[in-house]
Every structure is written in structure tokens, then in C-alpha cells.
């Protein structure tokens, strides 16, 4: 039978005790497989003390790793340390351990992630290895279940397990391993009485019987222990408190336990000793128990044979000046009982071997050893250590003291004037200061360029020791511009400008010539680079910077690529230039071949000349341009004129320009993933045949995109942040038919989000627009989110519009056949009576449907029509306006269907709008107004409605009798229903057994009592009728106890009559007719008609 005892880390109990530290517990059974020997061993240990020979026990180590043989696990050094702890805790008591320095690895993730406290875990683990001739020790470094350990029985099995951590301390590297070994050697917990109830009496407990040999841990020199778990402080002192989970047998003041005993529940660092009788019991157990006898090594213990001492491992070579403690260089740990020493040779048995202190001895080669002074034992030597003096520098000798640059180069390499070799561990550095202690002390790149005149000093520097040599003598460096001493340069072969250059004239790249610029280049004022037919210019890398001589007062003319010339850029900068890059193939002469332009990265800055351009491509065929940055000093960033095919511009940036980022005329183009900032126009399209503008960002511009006389423009997925610029416009179209503007957002502008003039067939869909109009003074505004002028057959659909300040959300002016659908227009709080969410002026055949409009709480109009006849308005929602729907003058014959209106005035008309037969509009605000119309015009503008449907008829109408304008025909049950159901009045569905719904429905009926009492009566009649004919339906108390319900005279009798008629076989049509007559009689106000019904 295996009995397991184990340690568990308890979490969350610290605050309950006065001593705050993490706790562990080792729950031990109150019996043992060898219990037959228990009392005999106790008596021998207590009453027959004797001396014992030293004994050596064999141990085996098993380390748990993950399934791949990795993870956080016990290294060989850790196992050695754990083994040394056992030796240290037991050797003084004549018990030694032998280990063959081999480790058995158990590579199984299951043991790393499963709960070690489960019996299945313990059984599985101990089945991994069971050596009859030794004690098996299993080690697991980390566990998500805390930390602890357990032995596989007390005095019955030769296996134990230690795992996890306690307060970041790895328990396998503490005396917890000795605690578990004590259990294997048949020692019990000192507090065993707490675990079993078989308490050991204290000496203060006055009884004639002494029970220490038969109770507690069965020993008499271990004081009675009330379980000190969690109540020992960092000084290893018990605080006099019992553990909350164990009530001691005697008053707590009687106890004086030993918090340093290894078998107690003390802190791991307080486990120091065994008592004399515990030592006697362990030796007696080893002699008595068969399983321990099998573990005894029958040969004298030799310390060196049973300690796996490795050689010291050190960090890299160090300067002696930096070494305060040689142990700081050690990478592995010093074994218990050993110390670190250094010797002049690797063999400590050599007659010339001697111990040395390298710090005192100075430079030289030494070896490190782990040495045990008690046994005079040396471990193996380390690799040789070479210690040096790092800061003993010789003088630095330079070959020159005065140096100037050789034109046209603007470069001097300081290192070329030093011919020596820096000392070991040191480097050569340069500075403009001769004193390393100065602040600042600049370290200079030895490659010097550009104009300057400075003296430099060389030093040796050892980074590890952080020390400098004395400075060299100074070397005076002069680098002067070559612009005044150089002229035109003609390149006909392959030339690389890899170092800074200074050329005062033009650079002409001729036929078969290639110039590659990868470094700094300055060019004379009003000069440039000209690439002729057959020539090629390459600008490459971040260090390729092209500028002008004396840039503060000068400029250069830029790069000209003639027909047949070629330009390739891969990074670099062009600065202080009049026109950055100019390539031309004019239409007039049609010269061939065309210039070849391959720009994939370039930054260009100008000098603010009128009509200047960062890049000009004139008549150049389609190119793919990317990575362009044009920043300040130009009128145009990229100027494209002619060329045909499609010019592709991607991933570029245009900012701080006086007119346009990209100007394209007579072209096809595609512009994507670019940014435009602080220019008048972002993109200007003139007379282009096709263009695509997508995924760009526009900010702080007057106009994001302008299109003049261009066709088939596609503008999609752009972002525009223009609201901080007065009178700004997101997109402006003039004479640009067939433009598609979709999915852009946000478009934040001051004056217009989208303005289209003379641009029929424009599609504006799914854009997100916000208009602020901060530039208008006072309460009035002329701004609009979307403004169409003379742009017939356009579509404005599914846009989201937020109005901060504007005169309209969407305006269609003199634009026939426009479709305005599915737009959401929200006015945050712009209180202007002239505001119109949708404004249609002088436009016919406009369809306005499915728009959601929200007003500024009593101001403006949702939909406003003026001088606009023959339009269709259906399924729109307008809320919180002064006027929901306003049909102004000269706007005849409108179709108004399925609109939901909830406003100060839902409907205002000043024109004859035509008959509206059962169009299903909801007048939730309840007010309709007609102005300036005679009776005939009112009748010709009549709405036919069925008032049985909520909100189909306004309750407040100003034009004579309501019946003249809104004709109530309750026989007509059909009405226009919007496909999305927005104009279907909310209906209660009370006929379930949910009393809450029924009560809510009844309250809804009561709101009709004063307006339409007959309708209230009929609703309650239906409820009562249903409750009488269905067993599963009953009226709740909220209805039955209501006074209004109880005062309905004759209701119950009427219901009973109907039920009786149906019960006695009357034809159902008779009942239906009776109910129909009843409804007619209750609803009619005509006395003659009532008399006729009475006669039936």
C-alpha cells in the first residue's frame, strides 16, 4: 500500500495572519505501511540512545521538462545545488548521500500543466522511475498550481517529489527537499497531533502520564507543536498564534514549538536542524527497514566521489580597472561548501602552482577553481582567463597637421591620416575638443563633408573601462566649396558620385552616359542637370541630397530630362530648386523617343518662384510614380499635361504649395494613397478623359478635389479634413458629367461638402459629410453638404450628413430627374428658420425617398420644394423641424406617400399638390397648414385617409373643415406601405397571456377614450369577448379593477348576446353583420344614418 504525503502552496490566506508570507502544507497520513515498527523505533530513539556509524544512501534525480525537452526546468547546476542542500542538512548527523551525477529527464507536458495534488498525478509520476537500490527524487521547477512537495509514504517508500515556487523561491532549492527526505527516513511532522487528534502533551499540562512516545511525532525532545504554519516571521520566531485550521488541545500559552526544526511547518529558510531523537530515529529506521537497507552504499563515504563539481564559467575578458569582485565575472554558482579561487596554473598538483589574486597581481593568464577547504578538494579548472590593463595608452601619431579637400570632392577622411593600430580593447575616436572631461565632448564621424574649418583631435577609447588616452596633436581641416573653381561637367560613361561633390556649372549626361548620385551634391546658381537623348540619371538612397551652392541666396534650375533621356529615383532629396524635375515631349513637334521617367521615391523643396513646379511631365507617356514628397516653394507639386494612357501616382505627399498638389490636364490618371496638406487645391483635374482618385487624405485645403470639364471621374474612399479652412469645399465639379463620388468619409468642410455645377449624371453615394460654415457671420449660412446646380439625372444616395452650420443638407437647383434616396441628415443644433435638410428649387421629376431627417428642434424644414413640380416624396422620415414637409409656391402635382412626420407643422403647402389617395403618411406631430389656396385648390390637394389608422389624419388643420383637405373614408382598408415598414403605425399585439402586454395595451386604448370613445369601447369589447370564448385567455386585474372599465354599461351583456347567437347555430354572417352594424352605428355622427341602422 502506498501512502502519499504532499506539500501544497496556499494562496490568498496571507492577510489572515500576523506574519505575512506565502505558506505551504504537507498533509501526512496518520499511519504508515511500516506502522508495525513505529513505536519500537520511537522507544529505541527515546530510551536507548546510542552512537551510529556514518551511513551513505544512494539517490537518483529525475527532472521534469516539456515534451520537447525544454521549458523552465532544473539545470545540472540546480540539481547539484539541491543535492548540496541534502548534504549540508544531513552530513552533521552522520547521514550522507551518493549520486552518480546523472539526471533522468521526464519530457512530458502533462506533468507540467496538471495538478500535482491529484492522486492520479502522484501515481503516474512515481511510476516513471522506481529504483529499489536508491531514493528517487523528482523535481519540477514551475507549476501553475503553486509549489510544494510530497513523499510517497512515511517510512514506507523511497520516493519523493518537490515542485514549484514559494514567494518566487524555487522550493527544490530549499530545505523542503530535506523535509521530504525526513519523511522517507520515517520522521513525522512535529505537529502530527493536529493532523490526527492524537495530541502530544506539553510540559505545562499537569498529568501523571507522559505521552510523547505514543502521540504527536512519537518523540520527546521535539516540543509539542500546535501547527505554526503561517505564524513564523522572517527572523524564524513563532508569534504565539495557532493556525486557524487547527484548534490546539491545550491553551496556546502552554506551547513552545521549535520553528527551526526541519520537520515543522516553518519557513523554508528557517529549516535548520533535526533534534537528537529525530537523528536516532532516522538511523534506527535505516538499520531496521528493508527498503532503506537496499539504498545503503556499502563503502566508506568519500566526499570527492559524490559531488559533481563543474569548472567555473566566466564572462568575457575584462579590464582589471573595472573589477571590484572577481565573483562578479562568474556565470555559474559556487557549490555549497566551496569557494572560488584563482591559480597561476591549471594543475593544482603542480609544484609551481600557487593561488593568486589577479587584481593585485595585474595583467596575466589565470585559472579559476571551486575549492573545498574542509576536504582540500579542487574542482576542475576554468578556461584560461586573460586579464589586461585597459588604460595604459601610448601617444597617438598623425601623419598631417593641416588638410584641405580636393575639388570637386567635399570630403575628408580623418582616419586616413592615422597609420597606427589601436591597443587591444580600444578604438580610435575623433573630437573637436581636446579634453574628454569637457561637457559636451562631441564624438565626430571621421568622414567629414561640407564647408567648414575646424581642428580635430584623435583619442584611444576603451568602452569597457570608459577611459581615454591623451589627445593627439590637432589636425586642422578646411573644406571649401568648389563652385567657384569648377565649370560644366560632361558625362559620357558610367560615373558615380558616391562622396559629397561641388560643381559650379551644369552637369550634362550625354548619349551612353550614366550618372549615379548617392551622396551630397551642390550645383552652381541657376545651373542644373541636363539628361540628353541616350543619357541616364540615377538618384538613389537617403544620402543623395542635391542642392545649390550658397543656398541662402541662390537657387539652381533643377533636372531636365530631354527626349530620349532617362531618370530613375530611389530616394534622395532635391532642395532649393526653381523647378525640381522637368521632362517634356511636346505635342507640337512629337519628338521621339519619349523621356523615360521612373520615380519611386524623391523629396523636393523649392524656392517659391511663380508658376514653379516640383515635377513636370509634359507630353510624357504613362508613368507609375510613387514615394514623392513635394514640400513648399512651388505653385504645383506634380504637373501632368498630356501624355495619354493612365498616369499612376501612389503613396506620395504634397504640402505647403501655393496652388495645387497634383494638376492634370488632357490626361487619364489614377491617384491613390496620397496626402495633400495646406495647399489651395489638393487635386485639380482639367479636360481629363478619365480619372480615379481613391484612398487619399486631404487636410487644410481650400478645395480637396476640383474637376473642370472632365468626364467619368471616380472619387472613392478619400478622407477630407477641411473644416478649419474658411469657405472650403471638399469636391467641386464644373462641367464634369458622369462623376462617381462614393464611400468618401469623412468629408469635413466649411462651405460645401460636394458642389456640382453643370455636371449631369453625377452619382454621390455612401459619403460621410460634415459641414461647419464657420466663415459665415451671424446666424445665416450659405453652406450645403451636397449642392447640385444644373446637374440633372444625378443620384444622391445613402449619404450620412451632419450639419453644424449650413443652409441645407442636400440642395438640388435647376436639376431635373434627380434621385435623392436613403440619406441620413442630422442637424446638431443650428437654429435657423431658413434651414432645409433637403431643398429642391426649380427642379422637376425629383424622387426623394427613404431619407431620415432630423431637425434642429423647431427650426427649418425637413423637405422644402419651391418652383419644383411633379416630384415624388415617399417613405421619408422628418422629425423635430418647424416644417416637416414644406411645398412652397409653384410646386404643383407632388406624390407624397408613406412619409413619417413629427414636427411643429408636419405639412405646409402653398401650391395645389394634386390628390393623394390613401398614401399612408403618418402625421405624428398632428398639424397641417395650407396657405394662399382657395377651396377648389384645397379639394384638388385632398388626402384620402382612413382615420382608423393612427396618425393618417392630422388633428389640427387650418383650412376650413378637415374633411375638405383630409377626407376620412373608414371603408378603405388599404393604404400605401413603405417596403421598409417605416410608415406602418405601431400596433399592439395584446392577445397573449402576458399580463404586462395586456396592461400596456389597455393604457393605449385609454388614450383614445377622450378622442375616440367609440374606438375605446370597441377595443375593450374585443378584449372581453376574447376572454369569454377562450379558456387560455383571461383579463388581468389592471383591467378588471379599473373604474373606466367597470363603468362600461352593458358591455358584458352585449358580449353574452353575441356568444349566444353563435352558440345556437345562427349563420356566422348574421353575427358578423350585427357586429358590423354596431360598429357603423357607434362611429357615425349622422342622426339620419343612425335611424336607418336602427331599422335594421
In short:
Helix content is 14%, strand content 31%. It has 1096 residues and is of the alpha/beta class.
β-strand number:
76
> What Rg, in angstroms, do the CA atoms define?
50 Å
Helix content: 10-25%
CATH architecture of the domain at 487-679: 3 Solenoid
CATH class of the domain at 487-679: Mainly Beta
Percentage of residues in DSSP E strands: 25-35%
Protein architecture, described:
14% of the residues lie in helices and 31% in strands. The strands form seven sheets. It has a 33-stranded parallel beta sheet that branches. The chain is α/β, with parallel strands linked by helices and 1096 residues long. Residues 1-22 and 1065-1070 have low confidence and may be disordered. Among the domains are: 55-187 and 279-299, Collagenase (Catalytic Domain), CATH 3.40.390; 188-273, no CATH class; 326-387, no CATH class; 402-478, no CATH class; 487-679, Pectate Lyase C-like, CATH 2.160.20; 995-1094, no CATH class. Helix 1 packs across helix 7 and helix 13 packs across helix 16 (1051-1063). It has 18 helices and 76 strands.
Amino acid at each position: 500500500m502506498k501512502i502519499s504525503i504532499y506539500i501544497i502552496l496556499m494562496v490568498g490566506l496571507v492577510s489572515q495572519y500576523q506574519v505575512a508570507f506565502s505558506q505551504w502544507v504537507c498533509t501526512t497520513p496518520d499511519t504508515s505501511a511500516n506502522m508495525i515498527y513505529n513505536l519500537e523505533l520511537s522507544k529505541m530513539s527515546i530510551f536507548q540512545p546510542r552512537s551510529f556509524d556514518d551511513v551513505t544512501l544512494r539517490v537518483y534525480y529525475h527532472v521534469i521538462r516539456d515534451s520537447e525537452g525544454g521549458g523552465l526546468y532544473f539545470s545540472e547546476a540546480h540539481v547539484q545545488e539541491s543535492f548540496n542542500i541534502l548534504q549540508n542538512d544531513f552530513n552533521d548527523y552522520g547521514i550522507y548521500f551518493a549520486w552518480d551525477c546523472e539526471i533522468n529527464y521526464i519530457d512530458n507536458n502533462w506533468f507540467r500543466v496538471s495538478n500535482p495534488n491529484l492522486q492520479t498525478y502522484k501515481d503516474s509520476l512515481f511510476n516513471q522511475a522506481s529504483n529499489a537500490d536508491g531514493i528517487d527524487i523528482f523535481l519540477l521547477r514551475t507549476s501553475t498550481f503553486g509549489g510544494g512537495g510530497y513523499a510517497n509514504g512515511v517510512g514506507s517508500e523511497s520516493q519523493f517529489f518537490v515542485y514549484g515556487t514559494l514567494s518566487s523561491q524555487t522550493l527544490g532549492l530549499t530545505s523542503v527537499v530535506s523535509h521530504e527526505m525526513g519523511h522517507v527516513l520515517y520522521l513525522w511532522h512535529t505537529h502530527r497531533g493536529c493532523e490526527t487528534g492524537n495530541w502530544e502533551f506539553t510540559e505545562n499540562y499537569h498529568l501523571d502520564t507522559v505521552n510523547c512516545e505514543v502521540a504527536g511525532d512519537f518523540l520527546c525532545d521535539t516540543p509539542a507543536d500546535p501547527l505554526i504554519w503561517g505564524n513564523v516571521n522572517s527572523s524564524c520566531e513563532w508569534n504565539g498564534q495557532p493556525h486557524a485550521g487547527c484548534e490546539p488541545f491545550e491553551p496556546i500559552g502552554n506551547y513552545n514549538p521549535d520553528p527551526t526544526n526541519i520537520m515543522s511547518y516553518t519557513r523554508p529558510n528557517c529549516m535548520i536542524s533535526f533534534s537528537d531523537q529525530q537523528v536516532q530515529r532516522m538511523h534506527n529506521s535505516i538499520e531496521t527497514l528493508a527498503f532503506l537497507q537496499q539504498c545503503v552504499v556499502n563503502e566508506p563515504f568519500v566526499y570527492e566521489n559524490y559531488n559533481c563539481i563543474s569548472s567555473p564559467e566566466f564572462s568575457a575578458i575584462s579590464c582589471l580597472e573595472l573589477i571590484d569582485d572577481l565573483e562578479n565575472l562568474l556565470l555559474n554558482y559556487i557549490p555549497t561548501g566551496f569557494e572560488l579561487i584563482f591559480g597561476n596554473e591549471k594543475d593544482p598538483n603542480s609544484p609551481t602552482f600557487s593561488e593568486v589574486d589577479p587584481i593585485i597581481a595585474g595583467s596575466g593568464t589565470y585559472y579559476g577553481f571551486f575549492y573545498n577547504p574542509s576536504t582540500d578538494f579542487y574542482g576542475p579548472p576554468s578556461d584560461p582567463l586573460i586579464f589586461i590593463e585597459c588604460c595604459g595608452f601610448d601617444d597617438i601619431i598623425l601623419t598631417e597637421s593641416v588638410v584641405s579637400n580636393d575639388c570637386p570632392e567635399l570630403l575628408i577622411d580623418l582616419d586616413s591620416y592615422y597609420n597606427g593600430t589601436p591597443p587591444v580593447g580600444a578604438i580610435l575616436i575623433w573630437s573637436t575638443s581636446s579634453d574628454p572631461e569637457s561637457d559636451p565632448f562631441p564624438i565626430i564621424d571621421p568622414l567629414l563633408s561640407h564647408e567648414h574649418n575646424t581642428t580635430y583631435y584623435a583619442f584611444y577609447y576603451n568602452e569597457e573601462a570608459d577611459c581615454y588616452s591623451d589627445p593627439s596633436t590637432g589636425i586642422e581641416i578646411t573644406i571649401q566649396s568648389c563652385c567657384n573653381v569648377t565649370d560644366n561637367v560632361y558625362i559620357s560613361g558610367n560615373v558615380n558620385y558616391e562622396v559629397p561633390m561641388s560643381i559650379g556649372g551644369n552637369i550634362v549626361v550625354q548619349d551612353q552616359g550614366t550618372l549615379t548620385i548617392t551622396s551630397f551634391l551642390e550645383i552652381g546658381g541657376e545651373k542644373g542637370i541636363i539628361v540628353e537623348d541616350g543619357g541616364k540619371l540615377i538618384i538613389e538612397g537617403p544620402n543623395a541630397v542635391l542642392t545649390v551652392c550658397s543656398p541662402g541666396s541662390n537657387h539652381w534650375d533643377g533636372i531636365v530630362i530631354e527626349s530620349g533621356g532617362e531618370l530613375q529615383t530611389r530616394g534622395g532629396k532635391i532642395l532649393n530648386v526653381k523647378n525640381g524635375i522637368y521632362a517634356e515631349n511636346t505635342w507640337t513637334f512629337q519628338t521621339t523617343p519619349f523621356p523615360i521617367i521612373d520615380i519611386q521615391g524623391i523629396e523636393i523643396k523649392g524656392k517659391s518662384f511663380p508658376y514653379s513646379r516640383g515635377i513636370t511631365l509634359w507630353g510624357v507617356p504613362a508613368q507609375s510614380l510613387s514615394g514623392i514628397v513635394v514640400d513648399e516653394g512651388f505653385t504645383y507639386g506634380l504637373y501632368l499635361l498630356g501624355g495619354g494612357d493612365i498616369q499612376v501616382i501612389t503613396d506620395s505627399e504634397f504640402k505647403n504649395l501655393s496652388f495645387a498638389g497634383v494638376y492634370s490636364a488632357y490626361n487619364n490618371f489614377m491617384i491613390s494613397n496620397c496626402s495633400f496638406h495646406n495647399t489651395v487645391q489638393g487635386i485639380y483635374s482639367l479636360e481629363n478623359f478619365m480619372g480615379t482618385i481613391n484612398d487619399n487624405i486631404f487636410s487644410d485645403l481650400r478645395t480637396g478635389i476640383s474637376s473642370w470639364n472632365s468626364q467619368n471621374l471616380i472619387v472613392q474612399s478619400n478622407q477630407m479634413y477641411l473644416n478649419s479652412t474658411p469657405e472650403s469645399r471638399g469636391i467641386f465639379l464644373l462641367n464634369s458629367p458622369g462623376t462617381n463620388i462614393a464611400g468618401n468619409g469623412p468629408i469635413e468642410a466649411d462651405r460645401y461638402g460636394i458642389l456640382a455645377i453643370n455636371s449631369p449624371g453625377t452619382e454621390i453615394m455612401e459619403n460621410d459629410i460634415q459641414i461647419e460654415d464657420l466663415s459665415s457671420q451671424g446666424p445665416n449660412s450659405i453652406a450645403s453638404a451636397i449642392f447640385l446646380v444644373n446637374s440633372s439625372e444625378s443620384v444622391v444616395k445613402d449619404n450620412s450628413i451632419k450639419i453644424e452650420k449650413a443652409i441645407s443638407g442636400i440642395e438640388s437647383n435647376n436639376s431635373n430627374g434627380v434621385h435623392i434616396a436613403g440619406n441620413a441628415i442630422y442637424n446638431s443644433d443650428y437654429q435657423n428658420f431658413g434651414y432645409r435638410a433637403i431643398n429642391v428649387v426649380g427642379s422637376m421629376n425629383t424622387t426623394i425617398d427613404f431619407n431620415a431627417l432630423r431637425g434642429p428642434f423647431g427650426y427649418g424644414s425637413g423637405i422644402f420644394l419651391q418652383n419644383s413640380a411633379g416630384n415624388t416624396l415617399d417613405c421619408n422620415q422628418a422629425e423635430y423641424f418647424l416644417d416637416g414637409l414644406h411645398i412652397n409656391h409653384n410646386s404643383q402635382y407632388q406624390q407624397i406617400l408613406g412619409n413619417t412626420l413629427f414636427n411643429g407643422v408636419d405639412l405646409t403647402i402653398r401650391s395645389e399638390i394634386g390628390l393623394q389617395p390613401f398614401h399612408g403618411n403618418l402625421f405624428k406631430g398632428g398639424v397641417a397648414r395650407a396657405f394662399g389656396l382657395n377651396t377648389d385648390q384645397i379639394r384638388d390637394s385632398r388626402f384620402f385617409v382612413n382615420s382608423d389608422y393612427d396618425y393618417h389624419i392630422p388633428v389640427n388643420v387650418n383650412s376650413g373643415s378637415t374633411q375638405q383637405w383630409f377626407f376620412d373614408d373608414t371603408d378603405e382598408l388599404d393604404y400605401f406601405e413603405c417596403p421598409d415598414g417605416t410608415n406602418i403605425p405601431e400596433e399592439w399585439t395584446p392577445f397573449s397571456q402576458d399580463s404586462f402586454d395586456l396592461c400596456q395595451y389597455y393604457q393605449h386604448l385609454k388614450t383614445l377614450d377622450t378622442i375616440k370613445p367609440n374606438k375605446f369601447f370597441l377595443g375593450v369589447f374585443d378584449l372581453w369577448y376574447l376572454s369569454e370564448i377562450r379558456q387560455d385567455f383571461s383579463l388581468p386585474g389592471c383591467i378588471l379593477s379599473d373604474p373606466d372599465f367597470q363603468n362600461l354599461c352593458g358591455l358584458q351583456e352585449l358580449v353574452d348576446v353575441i356568444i349566444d347567437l353563435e352558440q345556437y347555430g345562427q349563420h356566422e354572417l348574421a353575427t358578423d353583420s350585427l357586429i358590423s352594424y354596431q360598429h357603423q352605428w357607434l362611429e357615425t355622427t349622422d342622426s339620419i344614418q343612425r335611424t336607418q341602422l336602427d331599422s335594421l
